[in-house]
Specification:
It is a single chain. By secondary structure, the protein is α/β, with parallel strands linked by helices. The chain folds into two domains: about 100 residues, Enolase-like, domain 1 (2-Layer Sandwich); about 120 residues, Alpha-Beta Barrel (TIM Barrel), CATH 3.20.20. About 35% of the residues lie in helices and about 25% in strands. It is elongated, with a radius of gyration of 22 Å.
């Protein structure tokens, strides 16, 4: 008997951030609510799997009755991509493995540990005129993360892309990085995310002026350009 998708359950779950999240380099205030869309599949033999999905009702109607391949480790067929993660969970359960081990085709050796970081340090300081006071505000938010047990932090930067004049915004980004490093101490991992709000010269300037803060990574410095990123990497 072919194994098919017999039932699909779907929910959009609402969560609350510990505080209101402000802007990034290109978007306005993110708010305090966030949502995670999950689907649970039941096959006609009773097996189940769940995971993230952005499916529509039309997707679900089209998926009911679809055959589930015996082996999904080479990839989920395009026709089933709307439920890729629930399908992988279902297949891994059948194999008696966690999903990462099933996909990697290797046995589980000991427990899996995944490092996490506090990504709540948005651009929350636009109402503050003074750079030092603005930096102190973000540093205080970082200390809230320390109190929750975080040892790694990602800071939204790129204030000069849209929200502030370029020079003022760049200088404030640098001041914020300095202040957060001072607040969280020398052993914490510090990352920055410009959401494509820099160009290559701004990225170099910010990295040069925060070298003492030991930035672990710069995420989305600018829109993808292989030549410019190769130049930045070489620099």
């Amino acid at each position: 008997m072919a194994v098919t998708i017999a039932r699909i359950e779907y929910a959009r779950l609402r969560g609350r951030r510990p505080r209101l999240a402000g802007c990034n380099a290109r978007l306005g205030v993110h708010g305090q609510d966030l949502f995670c869309s999950l689907a649970r599949l039941t096959a006609n033999d009773g097996a189940q799997g769940f995971g993230w999905s952005a499916m529509t009702r039309e997707d679900a109607d089209a998926l009911l009755g679809q055959a589930i391949p015996d082996d999904l480790r080479q990839g989920v067929p395009v026709a089933l991509r709307a439920v890729e993660y629930p399908l992988l969970d279902l297949a891994a359960k059948r194999a008696g493995q966690p999903v990462y081990a099933y996909v990697a085709r290797r046995p589980v050796i000991g427990p899996l540990f995944a490092p996490c970081y506090d990504t709540s340090l948005y651009i929350d300081d636009l109402q503050v005129a003074d750079d030092a006071a603005a930096a102190a505000l973000i540093a205080q938010e970082a200390l809230e993360g320390v109190a929750r047990g975080h040892t790694a932090f990602k800071i939204k930067v790129g204030r000069g892309a849209m929200h502030l004049p370029l020079e003022q915004g760049t200088a404030r980004d640098i001041a914020v990085i300095h202040a957060v490093r001072a607040a969280v101490g020398p052993d914490a991992v510090l990352m920055i995310d410009a959401n494509n709000g820099y160009n290559v010269n701004l990225a170099k300037r910010v990295l040069a002026e925060t070298v003492v803060d030991r930035i672990y990574w710069l995420e989305e410095a600018f829109y993808e350009d292989a030549r410019l990123y190769a130049h930045l990497q070489e620099w």
